Amino acid sequence: MSAHDTETKQGMVSAIKSLITFNKDIPVMPLIIIGLVLAGIGAVTAVVVLVKGHEAMYAVNREVPWGMLIGTYAYFVITSTGLAFIGGLGHAFGFENFAKIGRRIVVLATLVLLAGFTQILMELGHPVRMIIWMMLSPNFAAPILWMGVFYSIELVILALELYYAFKAHPTEKDHKTAAMLGFAAMVVGTLATSNLGFVFGSLTARPWLYGVHFPLFLVVSGITAGAALLMLVHNIAYKFSIPEEYKPSMDALAKLMGGGIGIMMLMYLWKFLTSIFTQPIGSYESAMALIAGPLAANFWIGEMLLAVIIPLVILLTAKGSTKKYGIAGLIFMIGLYFTRVNYIVAGQMPVMRKATDGSGVHADLSGLGIYSPSIAEWGIFLLGIGVAMVLYFSAEKFLDLKTPEHH
Amino acid sequence: MSQKKYGIVLDAKNCLNCKACTVACKFENGVEVGDEQYRIWVAEKDLKGTYPNLRLDFEPSQCQHCENTPCASVCPTSATYKTDEGVVLIDYKKCIICKACMTACPYDARFVSEVHHAIEKCTFCYHRLPEGREPACVETCPTKVRVFGDLNDPNSKAAKLLAKHDTYQLKPEKNTRPRLFYIIK
Amino acid sequence: MTLSGMNISRRKFLAASGGVVATGLVAANLSTLKAVAGGHASAPTGEKGEKHIASSCEMCVNKCGFFAHVVDGRLKKLNPNPKFFKSRAMLCARGNAGAEEPYNPERLTKPLLRVGERGEGKWKEISYEEAFKLVAEKLKEFKVKNENRCSVAFASSEGFQEEIFQYLVQSYGSTNTVRHPTLCLSSVIQGWSSVYGVYPDADLKNSKFVIMFGANRAEAIVTPDTIDFVKYKPEGAKLIYLDPRFTNTAAKADKWFPVKPGTDLAFVLGVINVIIKEKLYDAAFVEQFCDGFADLEAMIAPHTPEWAEKECEIPAVEIRWVAREFAKAAPAAVAYPGRRTSWYVNDVYFRRACAILTAICGCWDAPGGICPKASVPIKNLDPLFPYFEMSDDRIDVASTVKNKLPKDKRSENMPTDSVAYLGEKDGSWLRFRDAIIAQDPYPVEAMIVYKQNFIEAVPNRAKTMEMLKKIKFMAVIDIQMTEVAYFADLVIPESTYLERWDSVHNLAGIWPIATFRQPVVEPVFGTKSMFEIAGGIINEMLKLPELWDDADELEVEDFKYDVVEDIFGKPMEEYIKRQLADHPGAYEQMMKEGVFYLSDQAVYGKTRNPEFRFKTRTGKIELANVKYADKGLNPLPIYAAPRQPEPGKYRMILGRHGFNTHTGTQNNEYLWEIQKENVIWINTQEAKKLGVVSGDYVTVKSSVGEQQVKVFSTEKIRKDCVFFAHGYGRLSPQLSLVYKKGASQAAILEDYLEPISGNAAMHETFVTIAKA
Ligand code: SF4
Ligand code: SF4
Ligand code: SF4
Ligand code: SF4
Predict the structure, then answer these.
(1) From the CA atom positions of chain A, what is the Rg in Å?
(2) Do C27 and C13 touch, CB atoms closer than 8 A?
(3) Residue B13 has what DSSP assignment?
(4) To the nearest whole angstrom, how far is the Cα of B49 from the nearest Cα of chain C?
């Protein structure tokens, strides 16, 4: 071992040591513990699921093959790319307000993405086979193949971004690289998100899901979610009194989030009008399932109230209160979860064949497919939330997420 | 060289709704007992009219072996593929159970097999064809509702039926170009 | 969910409200039964390779031929035998599901001796040898005690090994045998035989005009009729279907008449009236072959279509139309005889009327008409059995118990304390049971039962249970724990039809064919066939001198040689060889192809020959039956209106479907998953009146019992009757799939008798329905 190597190594160790700050006054220990408990429940569920098999444990079925887990997966990974998008705005496009919180953004984006991967791992019947056969016999026409490609690239970009974000003494060149990475994360993230939308939007069989709406809606709502989540975690990190220096960042995020909700509203309006006007087959049933059917409670309370109306009202009346931004962010993040699952489930509720005697199709009295998540699905959901919480709040606790000043 | 083009022509008005075909398929293909475990079904159409003027029709069906094949298009690992004769098959070992094909199929023809731990559906009993045996559902049917054959061979019974009768296909608006043809007249 | 160790269906139990947030339940351990679906279980024998073995089906009476596809010693699938033209080379759902029978997780595997109370389900496993010894001992015990071999009764059901069972009966010498026909087809046999001397078939393949009465051929599968009436229906042919229910056959019919229950006879009389009045009948045929036309003409005069319409609620114009079309199509016209005809107290008269309609139009023994059955000449071994002194007349003949007849005009002039034409081997179940309960004129104290589940098959289950109290010992031979097995003292498992040899049987009909059975797999649980069981019991009987002391010694010696040694002492293959000995190559053909026949073409007209003598008193086709007149019965089919349910009550009608056979197949998962529970059909408007919707449970109550059953509110049934399928609501926990699931017919059917043929009259019960 050469002296030089040793030196480098020592340098790295000290660099890492310098990153770890044990005595930070951040009130996240309870959240880490809650996260651990949730992840623990989730892990036990995961083991049971692996032993007994998905078919036995999940409530998804022949009529509604995609349920809560796909929804949770989308919830996480799209929030992650939303975060990366905001980070990219900061790094690549000089939005100083976002660059100022760059470290947190990258860390959050990466960890949320990892949390999302727990969901897809538990959703796919054979995740290992996926890696093998996507390489050995890829179908380049398949949106899911591209989903794998884009999110893998996104993960790599985020990892590099992390490296630069935490590099002890960044050079000018590093900043340039970081800017390029930010841009790349933004582009790939947006492609990944909209392509995930296309996983659903490509389904001609499912009129509600089919089309351009979901790819775009995911991009918009993902960025909105990124903003909401950032406001929330800053509030937690700073005990709901965010220092003045971040106030402009928070205001900018609030505007981004408000604008995002605005566009989401516009998209809702036309999605529903086109789905209800003259009752187009399939999408009409889905729309009605949301408005007045089995998903109505989730739609009106979860989606409309929590993800649209309340956050928007809070933001409009916040008068610059960062605390209120945080609350709006929290409520939006809860609501957005319903948004994700509702949309996907609603799209599958119109059954492909009428549920008459002998058809084998199971439907409720109104002829819609039946799905309500099983305990195991909730358990896996908790795994995702728990992992996200443990990872992120540990990062808050043990790493310095405060972005160093630019020179 | 004329490429084989397999298909089934059905005369559903002869269907008794006896379910011989569904049970035969389960044994032939080792499909488990279970509400969602089926490759093939015989649906009772809605009863038309009121007592005593009634009409009841049955519609036996299965995977349509679509020429334009949405399930194969969305399959990321090419586990779902089409043979030269147009039979849509699944290579179980490549299937990752992402279920994209289940959501893509407009006919709800697919399910998660508890035997193969992969997605499963009708194969036209592909394993029987080289031995010159008909698909199990075709063979066992009392009234021989389904006629299986090479639609490219003008002398096959299926091709002759197709030429002679008006037929319809299920969900033509999906442009899947099914290989199942239902005789109207 | 686990049912007795079997994990079934993975369908989730979903929260009814369905919202994404609502927490669904996860039923633990939902992975499915792995063992039964062919192909992925290891072979019990370690045998390798694939085979296709010819044999025939026993899932119902039709005995369709198949090739069993056996992979590595395990039965994978049953494929229809293309040469089996009687069934037009098909296998129905049950025939396919039969491949599960040898592997059924609940089948009987070891002889069981009751150790707890009857019906408690406590058993001790014993060996076959012990079981045989016990049966022989018991046979001796009751013979010695009562000095009457008839104190042991033998019940059995149709099947290839039933003749072997009858060998056992004859080796013992009881006259008390009781079989299934009086729960099924004895009245149609009697009705048609009273006109032609035989019970014929219908040539649906060539018929241009068919009237079916409740014989639901689309669902109650009878080969080849079920296939022919749809697949081979000639261009332009018409099917007219009378049934209070809109069955799948109604769905296939050109016209469906929801006939008022019990009045089909009025319809047929109306048709005959038109045909005679308008001189549409085949005068030459009547002149040449029939007897009693003048009497018929006189009797039929008042039965105009207008009169009939009032009775049967089918418009007079339709009756006229049917009559004219029928006559026009003759002789290729069919008034379909049917099979299960245990309907009404006067069923024989109705069947006679159909036979008479057929006769006057000359639709006899001609393409498209009604034809006598032909057969393949197979040698019957007909061995001789000793004559035993200590025997008596059948109890249902000797007894003076009164017949239970519905109280209305139809029952006038009907025999009240006997059955007019009682099948010598068949008996009459309802009289049989009443006589045992009354112990009149002698006690019957033991029963040996071969695969007849009479607890669920015979109307009035409570009464059957009462009869069982008189039975001190009951041994049951079956493949599964039927109710009768469950309430028995000794249960002897039989090999399924896929594991044993069955002798050659001629399936008579318009296209006669002979078939047999050979084992397609070795007995999975080492069980024995009826042939081996009977042989084993007879061997034990021979060790007990008390069983032979009332027979001629020489006859017993002959018996030992002819039956014990020559039949039971040799493998069944020898028996089969002897049956086919007259036809060189037939044995080999049978083994290879599973069939033997002389021709696959129908032969018509043998009996349309002036020389031909019909098996009737006059040797002619008897429009007016001479023997009936002698017995005080009406020589002509006289109509009287059936009693109707009082307001608030419904008539219970029965019917079959193609997913199960009687009560024998419901515990087969592959059939169970098609129909897991029976439902009661109630007309939509009546359901509304009762305040019930489909899916609700109701209590159905008759004078003999009540059952709870799920409602199916439908337009497919008349308002005055209700229906549910047979075979559910079971008492045996070892039929776990249908144990206490749905409703039992036997529990609520009243036990009215059709006293000419001895058939049960199963459509005479009125029930009330109330929301459960
Ligand atoms: S019916 Fe469904 S499974 Fe079959 S080929 Fe078409 S899309 Fe694929
Ligand atoms: S062709 Fe074969 S696999 Fe397809 S439904 Fe028929 S029996 Fe089943
Ligand atoms: S086997 Fe034939 S008649 Fe029976 S249900 Fe299937 S298609 Fe219909
Ligand atoms: S009709 Fe069905 S159950 Fe009966 S013998 Fe034929 S295949 Fe077997």
Answers:
(1) 22
(2) yes
(3) G
(4) 9
pLDDT confidence of residue A169: 83
Give residue A407's pLDDT band: very low, low, confident or very high (50, 70, 90): very low
Separation between Cα atoms, residue A373 and residue A369, nearest integer Å? 13
C89: alpha, beta or left? (left if phi > 0; alpha if psi -120 to 50): left
Q: Which residues 264-323 of A have a C-beta within 8 angstroms of C?
A: 294-295, 297-298, 302
CB A286 within 8 A of CB A349: yes
- Above 70 in pLDDT, residue C114? yes
Residue C245 Cα to ligand 4 middle (Å): 24
User: What is the rounded CA–CA span in Å between residue C371 and residue C376?
Assistant: 16
How high is the mean pLDDT of chain C? 94
Judge whether residue C652 has pLDDT over 80: yes
Structure tokens at A271: 């999605």
Average pLDDT over residues C159-169: 96
Domains of chain A, each with CATH number or no CATH: 59-373 (1.20.1630.10)
- The ligand minimizing its distance to the Cα of C80 is 4
Measured between beta carbons, the chain A residues lying within 8 angstroms of B174 are: 204-205
Whole-angstrom distance, CA of residue C502 vs CA of residue C576: 8
* CATH tag for C186-374+605-630 (out of 3.40.50.300, 3.40.228.10, 3.40.50.1820, 1.20.1070.10): 3.40.228.10
The reply to whether ligand 3 has any atom less than 6 angstroms from the CB of B142 is yes
**What CATH code is assigned to C650-771?**
2.40.40.20
Looking at residue C28, its pLDDT comes to 30
| pLDDT on residue A168 | 79
Token pair in block for residue C509: 């009909």
Domain residue extents for chain B: 6-183
**Residue C1 pLDDT > 60:** no
pLDDT of residue C40 exceeding 90:
no
DSSP 3-state assignment of C712?
A: strand
What pLDDT is stored for residue B88 in this prediction?
Answer: 98
The ipTM of this complex is: 0.97
Q: CB–CB of C39/C71 below 8 Å?
A: yes
Q: At what angle do helices A172-201 and A322-348 cross, to 10 degrees?
A: 40
Q: CATH number of the domain at C112-179+384-500+524-583, out of 3.40.50.740, 1.20.1440.230, 2.40.50.220, 1.10.10.10?
A: 3.40.50.740
Q: C600 C-alpha vs ligand 1 centroid, how far in Å?
A: 42
Is the CB of B25 within 6 Å of ligand 2?
yes
Q: Is B29 in the pocket of ligand 2 (CB under 6 A)?
A: yes
The dihedral of CA C78, C82, C84, C85: what is its sign? Answer: positive
Q: Which chains touch B (3 or more CB pairs under 8 A)?
A: A, C
Check the CA dihedral B6-B12-B17-B18 and report its sign.
negative
**B6-183 is classed in which CATH architecture?**
2-Layer Sandwich (3.30)
From the list C23, C99, C21, C20, the residue with the least C-alpha distance to C57 is: C99
Contact A42, A115 (CB under 8 A): no
Q: Tell me, what amino acid is at A74?
A: A
Closest-CA residue in chain A for C24? A374
User: For chain C, which residues make up each domain, given as ranges?
Assistant: 112-179+384-500+524-583, 186-374+605-630, 650-771
Compute, in angstroms, the gap from residue A129 CA to the centroid of ligand 2: 27
Subunits close to C (at least 3 CB pairs below 8 A): A, B
Q: String of b and e for C260-296 (b: at least 16 CB within 10 Å)? A: bbbbbbbbbbbbbbbbbbeebbbeebbeebbbbbeeb
Residue C162, C-beta contacts closer than 8 angstroms, at least 6 positions apart: C156, C179, C450
Residue ranges in A59-212 assigned as alpha helix (H): 68-93, 96-99, 102-123, 127-136, 143-166, 172-201
